């Protein structure tokens, strides 16, 4: 039986391991926290730091294949493992490009993939020369994750808040829609493209409210989005699964925002909504099976379950019974013991025939349900 | 977080634990074989004999709730655990009735639930007085499982093959269809009935070929089957999930064959075909959540993947790539290292709009796919 190791033991690892149990495979997880969401769902849990060279190298030497569930891993160790014959998904060369947002932006530019105009800044001081370009988005090169390391600088008065590290300063695109296109590629020319997902943001809070799949976009926009996602994946030249986040502007132009070289939050609905979920798909790639079917069985909405503001401690799920009584909901709680504001604690998928019904029900769930302590 | 223990670590435990990872729960498994399909998917694996009183009792004392994935467990220990406040699904009283096929038959008779006419035999010698009733089905009282402990005695010449133990001798019903109705009940008057599943047998080999859901039966037959399944479940007076197997005869009469007080092979299609799978449903019951929605999203067929005749050893899956390429298949392999003839190694679910297409495709899969060594 093949041995596959996952770097990181969060909810993505947890869902990967749920899907792994459909196949003959021996699973390993490397993660510092022995109580992480994935720790108890693998054959072999190894406690250790995914950012440490020796730890990752020795972990990888035990297995046939390594994958990641988070980008902040030791890429040097993965490169050595790859050189020594371990299969790595995604390839370390692709991970290195994506992991650093400066490199990622330069990659899009190099491959002529439409992305918001930008300048590279070495440090906070370098920002002074670009104050005229504000408001703009600043993204730190290394270490950003899950909303951290990205902010808007509104004007010269925000100079002191600028990151004092290599970063990207990016023109604000007048966004009409945010999309995600997930692509699986086996490295032998075969690809599977999931239907585009649309991110719906709260009009006032500017936070992701819920996702809808398929996205409500004209066919031409979809074609552009898919073509651009494929350009990214071909440019990265690595087998694996990739979530390409895109903006659609008021004119209908499409821009690549960012890419994740792994299973992604924007694909969680595929567990119930698609024939082959993003997690199933990655196992197929890693185990050398044919690609799965990315088509969706039914339209879906997805809400993230995050810790409510003002609550920190042992998690309680207010309104859970109401949600579980709904005929078309699928609740995924990640088993995290403690909540804090904004922490991802789970997600809820709705499936249905009708977009309007899904949007309405997503609103109901948001009112009924919250994670408190 | 609640602690739930499972007695047995086979494929049913494996699929239960896949579903458990959607909820906050600490899981325990008791099983002799540390390499069993479920061993690596729980928080705490305990190696031990599910038939041993002390082992089961001490295992159960660690948790809030105990369930089973096989009937051959120590019921005395479960009774003591129940008396000491541990929740047990199903109740030991129900398990005691079902576990012994003599008791199970007497239960149906007592509750006036239609079942094939029968006599109880104390031993092989007692068979002599009933040779005139052959051909008939003989079922051993204790210890039968998965086809073992059941056979047909064709005539007096089969006397020596009769079980020399307490058994049921049952009239052969002229079976037109075999059905399974799965019912979940929470013990507070709420029930969820899954759509009936139809077992399709090979016309020559008389082995289960595949299952179809929903069953192709007249509405009146479905009503009878559901009513009888509910009679069984009410009679057992226990919360839990129950698979009631039924015969339909040529006249359209419905007879209860057997009941399983747990998740069951005839419900595996519910993972992809229903809103709430049988595994999800049992977690909802055990964790005190509302019942799930047993309705099906799409019609389905299910094939068991069993070890091919003539092969014993490390399992290999011939034709697996062909199956994985099909747009509507869901492959579940249970991760068992070795195969032998007839061993359950996995199952394949197909979903589709059309019964005829599903039947055709099930036939194709049977030709393409086998487990060899």
Automatic annotation (TrEMBL), chains A, B:
Its EC number is 6.3.4.18. Pathway: Purine metabolism; IMP biosynthesis via de novo pathway; 5-amino-1-(5-phospho-D-ribosyl)imidazole-4-carboxylate from 5-amino-1-(5-phospho-D-ribosyl)imidazole (N5-CAIR route): step 1/2. It comes from Dinghuibacter silviterrae. The lineage of its organism: Bacteria, Pseudomonadati, Bacteroidota, Chitinophagia, Chitinophagales. HAMAP family: PurK (MF_01928). The gene is purK. ATP binds at residues 101, 139, 170-173, 178, 257-258. This is N5-carboxyaminoimidazole ribonucleotide synthase. Keywords: ATP-binding, Ligase, Nucleotide-binding, Purine biosynthesis. Belongs to the PurK/PurT family. One of its GO terms (biological process) is 'de novo' IMP biosynthetic process. One of its GO terms (cellular component) is cytosol.
